[in-house]
Amino acid sequence: MIHYSCDRCRRMIDPAKEIRYVVRIDAQAALDPLPNDELDDDRDELLEIDEMLQSLALEDEDSLLDDAPQQLRFDLCSECYRKFLQDPLGVESALIVGFSSN
Ligand SMILES: [Zn+2]
After folding, report:
1. Which of 9, 30, 46, 51 is 20 to 30 Å apart from 94, CA to CA?
2. What is the model's pTM?
């Protein structure tokens, strides 16, 4: 039998006694398409693409990894699920940590 534990409070979740909540987060860089207004000049589009690829190749590999889409999945107990919904970005706890470190 598969046992789940809450990813927030580490408590074991017994599916026979309580509801297990799953939170999935897809995080990725938002690459909005560039406006097409400047494409009708005389510049060679292939040359532009080539330059773009070269500049991409020069990027630090670490930053490319940071920009890779992230798929996060958390198992939460009912209590932590409620708290997650109240503060999904952890703003409240981040503020508390900031205050206590002073
Ligand atoms: Zn929990």
Report:
1. 30
2. 0.56
Tell me how far the alpha carbon of residue 88 lies from the centroid of ligand 1, in angstroms. Answer: 14
Decide if 34 is inside a domain. Answer: no
Q: Tell me the CA–centroid distance for residue 8 and ligand 1, in Å.
A: 5
Residue 9 lies in a domain: yes
For every residue of 15-84, which 3-state class applies, written as one string? CCCCCCEEEEEEECCCCCCCCHHHHHCCCCHHHHHHHHHHHHHCCCHHHHHHHCCEEEEEEECHHHHHHH
Per-residue pLDDT of the chain (102 residues; tens, 9 = 90+): 678 999 999 999 998 999 999 999 999 988 888 777 665 666 677 788 787 777 766 665 555 556 789 999 999 999 999 999 999 988 876 776 665 555
Cα(3) to ligand 1 centroid in Å equals: 14
